[in-house]
Design goal:
Layout lengths: L2 H19 L29 H12 L7 H21 L7 H19 L3 H30 L13
Helix pairs in contact: 1-2, 2-3, 3-4, 4-5
Length: about 160
């Protein structure tokens, strides 16, 4: 891993943590009904390989504050990495924004059911709805930036737009 890639990954991690733990935003970042503004950063995973480890580490660090405990540090980071890998495989296309909705919408409720004894299917609806709202707004806006200015920003998607 080059120093440049490591530095970009660290920036993604720091941004994710800052956006998750910002007062006012942190109160809606955990639990059955969640709206993580930081999840919008996943749009960068469609075009920048540094976003994959960066956002996974950022999720792990942000989840140190989770009421679910250490399981959320590991499990949440794993879900973010899976979503980021799926987005990287698709590239900077609009349908890449669906990947985190599906991964987190189906994955987070497993943890909520096991740790908090919350019902699975209602949690799927709540988590997926929150994730979809973030992806349709912040994620879509950032994906437009990636698509328009990715070359200026030095982003090299695995699958270029054609």
């Amino acid at each position: 891993m080059s120093a440049r890639l490591l530095a970009r990954a660290a920036v993604y991690a720091a941004l994710y943590v800052a956006l998750t733990l910002t007062p006012g935003l942190s109160s809606i970042a955990y639990g059955q009904v969640q709206f993580r503004v930081s999840e919008g950063l996943l749009a960068f995973a469609a075009a920048d390989v540094a976003a994959l480890p960066g956002l996974a580490v950022g999720t792990a660090l942000a989840n140190l504050a989770s009421p679910l405990g250490l399981i959320d540090v590991v499990y949440g980071a794993a879900l973010t990495l899976v979503a980021a890998l799926g987005m990287w495989a698709i590239g900077p296309r609009p349908w890449a924004l669906v990947v985190p909705v599906v991964v987190n919408g189906l994955g987070v409720p497993v943890e909520l059911a096991l740790v908090l004894d919350l019902p699975y299917w209602p949690s799927v609806a709540f988590v997926a709805l929150g994730e979809a709202a973030v992806m349709a707004s912040i994620g879509a806006a950032l994906l437009m930036v990636v698509r328009r200015y990715g070359d200026v920003l030095g982003l090299k998607p695995r699958r270029p737009l054609t």
